[in-house]
Amino acid sequence: MPRIFKGFTLVFIITAGFLGCSTSEQITAESEESSGIFPGWYIQSGFSADSLSFHSFATAVSSDSIIAMANAELQARVNLESYIATKLESVREQLEDKGSDIATDTDFIITLRNAHNEVQENAVPGNKSAAKEESYYRGFYQVSISRSELQNLMRSGFDGKGRYWEAISDAPMFAQ
Predict the structure, then answer these.
(1) Neighbours of 36 (CB within 10 A)
(2) Is the CB of residue 47 less than 8 Å from the CB of residue 56?
(3) How far, in whole angstroms, is CA 159 from its chain's centroid?
(4) Shortest CA distance to 43 belongs to which of 164, 127, 131?
(5) From the centroid of its chain, how far is CA 170?
(6) Residue 115 and residue 95: Cα distance in Å, rounded?
(7) Predicted model pTM
(8) Residues 82 and 168: beta-carbon distance below 8 Å
(9) In what helix (H) or strand (E) does residue 120 lie, and over which residues does it extend?
(10) Residue 102: partners with Cβ closer than 8 Å, 6 or more residues away
């Protein structure tokens, strides 16, 4: 849990650094090009996946457009990690249903849950914008992680536990 907090803190500090260098006018101008309040690239369900990557989308509101986008980015990163965690738990359950004794091993479960902790920090920013609504701004943000990067993160999380990695590495979610 402290690792997640450190990640949020790092992202917040970086975002705060950009606040001094950015203006809300540029971001607002970008959002005016899209139709309606939601940009065309934004997926309201919050998640999508294709053959190469997993994507997460989030929105947040603030009186400042930059802060709205920074908060949306933080939420998108949290959502992506949560989505990946859910997918990995599904893979573990499938292994358990197939009778794998590894899938119920406490050490395997802990290793699996710890292995995806780096998703938030390694997610790559994508589309972003902000739009003014009445007296506040709504920020929109997309982050993504490629299937190959996720596989590399997971492999490093299973370092020294080759038997565990073998059990999960052929999961369809890593296929490209």
Answers:
(1) 8
(2) yes
(3) 22
(4) 127
(5) 22
(6) 17
(7) 0.75
(8) no
(9) helix 119-122
(10) 95, 108, 163, 164, 167
Both tokens of 84, joined, read 């990946």
What is the tens place of the pLDDT at every residue in 104-162? 999 999 999 888 888 999 999 999 999 998 899 999 999 999 999 999 999 999 899 88
CB 153 within 8 A of CB 122: yes
Distances (CA, A) of 104 to 100, 108, 171: 8, 7, 17
pLDDT exceeds 70 at position 21: no
Which residues on neighbouring strands pair with residue 167, listed in sequence order? none
Whether residue 145 contacts residue 122, with contact meaning beta carbons closer than 8 Å, is answered with yes
* Rg value, the chain, Cα: 18
Six-digit token pair at 116? 């995806």
Query: If you ran DSSP here, which 8-state letter would residue 116 be given?
Result: G
* First-to-final CA distance of the chain: 31
Which tokens in the block code for residue 68? Answer: 């709205």
How is the beta sheet containing 47-49 ordered, strand by strand? 47-49, 53-62, 136-146, 124-133
d(CA 67, CA 70): 5
Task: Report the distance separating Cα 42 and Cα 58, nearest Å.
Answer: 8
> What are the contacts of 95-104 at 24+ separation with CB within 8 A?
95/167, 95/168, 100/167, 102/163, 102/164, 102/167, 103/167
